[in-house]
Amino acid sequence: ESSARLPAPQGVMVYSYNFRSSLRWSPVEVDGGPLLYTVHFKTAAFNQWDEMNCTRISGTECRFPQLLNERSWTVTLRVRAERGPAVSDWVESEPFVAERNTTIGPPRVSSAAEAAFSDSLLLSITPPFAPRPGELLQYRVSYWENATRATRKELKTSSSLFKITDLKESTLYCLEVRVELQTLYCNISGRPSAPQCHSTALS
């Protein structure tokens, strides 16, 4: 039986971006061609291994099914390599909780250029995902005069259309925005958008 035992997958990790999650691992290299892989999952509430939608697959990534899209669940996954009757040991992931462990990407930010004000900027934000009932999305906006970051200021808003006021006229301001998600159990801060610059109008 030991001679039929395959090497176990390495680098087993859950990757999650904007709550789209998958288990990934490095391919097992052995003579005789590619191997197949099977993935199981269990939750903290129901501590029993169950099949996912990845049984005897040739790829090295398994996307979470709709069943596992509950963001507050603690989920553990395991994967093994297979070829005919030969299998490897199971390798488990670290426990994963989406609302704590996902990476939140930057929002999309645009200027309402047709509404040009001499003392303010009107901005529109498109969030990277839609919040669920009971969740609150807020935006932390950091802005500064293009000439110097020393004038950097911050504001926080929950509106996707907002105005930065008390600005100098005919001046170029740069800004970046990050999402902050508040859930019942935790707060997550996302990655900032790439800095972009907009000019106020001349009065």
Automatic annotation (TrEMBL):
<dbReference type="GO" id="GO:0005886">
    <property type="term" value="C:plasma membrane"/>
</dbReference>
<dbReference type="InterPro" id="IPR036116">
    <property type="entry name" value="FN3_sf"/>
</dbReference>
<dbReference type="GO" id="GO:0004896">
    <property type="term" value="F:cytokine receptor activity"/>
</dbReference>
<dbReference type="Pfam" id="PF01108">
    <property type="entry name" value="Tissue_fac"/>
</dbReference>
<dbReference type="InterPro" id="IPR003961">
    <property type="entry name" value="FN3_dom"/>
</dbReference>
<feature type="domain" description="Fibronectin type-III">
    <location>
        <begin position="106"/>
        <end position="203"/>
    </location>
</feature>
<dbReference type="InterPro" id="IPR050650">
    <property type="entry name" value="Type-II_Cytokine-TF_Rcpt"/>
</dbReference>
<dbReference type="InterPro" id="IPR013783">
    <property type="entry name" value="Ig-like_fold"/>
</dbReference>
<dbReference type="Pfam" id="PF09294">
    <property type="entry name" value="Interfer-bind"/>
</dbReference>
<dbReference type="InterPro" id="IPR015373">
    <property type="entry name" value="Interferon/interleukin_rcp_dom"/>
</dbReference>
<feature type="domain" description="Fibronectin type-III">
    <location>
        <begin position="6"/>
        <end position="101"/>
    </location>
</feature>
<protein>
    <submittedName>
        <fullName>INGR2 protein</fullName>
    </submittedName>
</protein>
